Amino acid sequence: VDRYGYVRKALHGMRMLSAEEVQAVYGKQRCRVDLREPRWSFLNTLFSVASGCFFAQLVERTDASSLGDVASPLTSDYRELSRIVESAVSEAHVEGTLKKQILANPEKYVELDSEAALVLLDQKLAGKRLVLITNNDWDYTRKMMSYAY
């Protein structure tokens, strides 16, 4: 949605809609955007972008199952699908199941960068002060940093 309230780009699942499809769905009508409404979700962190991609992929799967291409127990109600994704992601994040799985087998989930340590060392040798800022707990951060470095 642009600053005037017109829809310029849209996706359905993982597929970008053509200009003609956007026009057919939204026409020349203005889209009233009130970001306080629950129908809007912010995708402004890597974590939320991952949730958005998960939702888009489930939309693809749901659409395929409704066409008979794939057997799926998923609902075809996109609002309900969004609620399911939000609940699943929250459960994995809040209960720590995802972190436990990563810590149990980091080589499966973490791609090590041999250059990263050298870059940090160069910065330190150049007199720069380094700090790690994260929203993860200390135990997880310490274990991940120990694995990576």
Topology, pairings included?
Blueprint (H helix, E strand, L loop, with lengths): L10 E2 L2 E2 L2 H8 L19 H21 L11 H17 L2 H8 L1 H4 L4 H12 L12 H11 L1
Antiparallel strand pairs: 1-2
Helix pairs in contact: 2-3
GO molecular function: 5'-nucleotidase activity; metal ion binding
InterPro entries: HAD-like_sf, HAD-SF_hydro_IG_5-nucl, HAD_sf
Pfam families: 5_nucleotid
Overall structural domain count? 2
Low-confidence sequence ranges? none
Shape estimate? extended
Helix content: 40-55%
What can be said about the biggest beta sheet?
Answer: 2 strands, antiparallel
Q: Give the mean pLDDT.
A: 88
Could you spell the SSE succession in H and E letters?
Answer: EEHHHHHHH
InterPro entries: HAD-like_sf (IPR036412), HAD-SF_hydro_IG_5-nucl (IPR008380), HAD_sf (IPR023214)
Family: Belongs to the 5'(3')-deoxyribonucleotidase family.
GO molecular function: 5'-nucleotidase activity; metal ion binding
Keywords: Hydrolase, Magnesium, Metal-binding
Describe this entry's structure for a reader:
With about 150 residues, this protein is mostly helical. It folds into two domains: about 10-105, no CATH class; about 110-149, no CATH class. The chain has seven helices and two strands. Strands 1-2 form a two-stranded antiparallel sheet. A hairpin with a 2-residue loop joins strand 1 (about 10) and strand 2. Helix 2 crosses helix 3. The longest helix has 21 residues, at about 45-65. The relative contact order is 0.07.
